[in-house]
Input
Amino acid sequence: MSAQLTFAAPRRAKPPRHLADLSPDERREAVAALDEKPFRADQLSRHYFGRLVDDPADMTDLPAAVRDRLVAELMPSLLTSVRDQVCDEGMTRKTLWKAFDGTLIESVLMRYPDRVTMCVSSQAGCGMNCPFCATGQAGLTRNLSTAEIVEQVVAGARALARGQIPGGAGRVSNIVFMGMGEPLASFNNVVRAIHRFSDPSPAGLGISQRNITVSTVGLVPAIGRLTDLDLKVRLAVSLHAPDDELRDELVPINTRWKVAEVLDAAWAYADRTRRRVSIEYALIRDINDQAWRADLLGRLIKGHPVHVNLIPLNPTPGSKWTASRPTVQTEFVRHLEAHGVPVTVRDTRGQEIDGACGQLAAMPQETPLRSQQG
Ligand code: SAH
Output
């Protein structure tokens, strides 16, 4: 298979600047540059990150004229909800967003008894071209700005705080960069977003870095850069095959950075951060689900701080591939466990609204049959 890999995002108009693009210091500078008192920046932060205000009329501590100006300059509307789809009795909600330039992206909120996880997009589309992933099929449109990434979570946090998700008022506790896009291909915006998520409220959302997962195809130099930042986020590596021959096909960037290099980078990350690395492995019937591949994977990773997350493949439209047979999946788990490797099988929330892993493709024309539309 020839690997058509896009690294640089296409040149496009930039999304408008937003408070969430900026660090607390940069916010004060931006406000000062508008000839306002720097403490106004903290007020804006408190409204956006702390109180989750979206209507400027609620910012009553800001004089009306100042408010209008600062909101126009620093809190432009970035994402407009085009459609919500819900399933699992409302506990899973996928939102299709339209950005300032018409670009479409998706995010998913998943409420569990003990946590709320938001799955966010880091890019519109994706350039990694993995043949089993819906997002990969259309290629990369552009990177999302930091604030466009943050806004997906803030919108979910607002809905939860206002009791719009069944189960009562709540908070976002976990974030996974497992929506559209390859987060490490938009490194700086993603790292800035991590800071906005984890900075204590009201500078940020106050979500622990330990509850944030960055999932990557394995861009080795970028994993190294992330390691050097000494963050506490969890790293997930989308491996999907333990051998280069098959991985070259399933994750085409493997033609550039091989399994061994990706795993070495992952161990270095684990070493530095003292955090277990998660290996993502979508089980694809008769493609990568053989017991011998489980054994090979087990041999490669045993003894390392690792956890394997098996994902039953979510078939994408037109794909010839499907999920493994249940008995084969059980065998795969058994073979891995025989090496002493911790394994879990990911639940497949949101399947019926195409909101499950790898299904985010932002097709506005699709009309779901079984889900509610908002
Ligand atoms: N680009 C990043 C993050 C986005 S995808 C990455 O590749 O890790 C999040 C996870 O969903 C990845 O492990 C990805 O391989 C997996 N995935 C993609 N398509 C899938 C599908 N159709 N079924 C199951 N998992 C899929």
Remarks:
- The first helix runs from residue 24 to 33.
- The first strand starts at residue 80 and ends at 87.
- DSSP finds eleven helices and 13 strands in the chain.
